[in-house]
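Look over both lines before class:
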Amino acid sequence: MGRLDDDIVVRIALVLADRRDHLTMGRFVGHLRDSALLRILPRLDDATLLLTGFVIDHPERLGRIVELLGEERVSSVIASAADGGLWPEAMAVASMASGEQRARIASLTAAQPEARLDSLVRTTAEQNLWESLLPIVAALDEDELRAVAALPALRDRAVLDGLVRGVVATGLWAEFLPMVAALPPTARRIVAKAAGALSDSDLDALAVGVEKEDLWELVFPLVELMGDGARRRLFELPAFRERAAG
């Protein structure tokens, strides 16, 4: 594909897009020169761009493609993901992007209207996609994180309970705890209650994860919101005893 004339490549891409053959497009898009991409990208609709990125064979090229698209078009693709029910695909694409480009995508996502962001959180909760969303949230700056933490969905007890279970399953404590610190007080108390209801083994996993990432300053305010019984169970766990002894 890299040796074909750009005119031929553009025609092939547009035929495949018309056929909605995203899988084949994903196989060759990573091989295309910038000169061909600059002609193809503006002629593809947002959903096609997103679904092609979802199945791209060379995810290392995603950063360059995002750069070529520009912020306005990336924002448009994010909006289309929200309006078209493609949040899972959008999160998968963002997770494949490099750290710098992931942060850029995260920031542009955080700038979306509240209703779209709320649909992102609710979709994540419904499909248990916290492992995809939390690393994106972790790329936000403090102001962006506070805006996300204020979403209505993150005051929903069922959503927050599922979030805690998702973090237990994935071990993404470093990505989770900064967001908890940004939550409104009522939401933090719900998270603390959900965490306090975890089994001893899950609580010990929490402690081990916190110790590994040195996140004690973030976890102790959460522990203070737990009930007396939950705190006693925590402080009796090996990881907490070792921390206290140290």
The chain has two domains: 1-112, 114-246. The mean pLDDT is 90. Residues 16 and 25 are 7 Å apart (CA to CA).
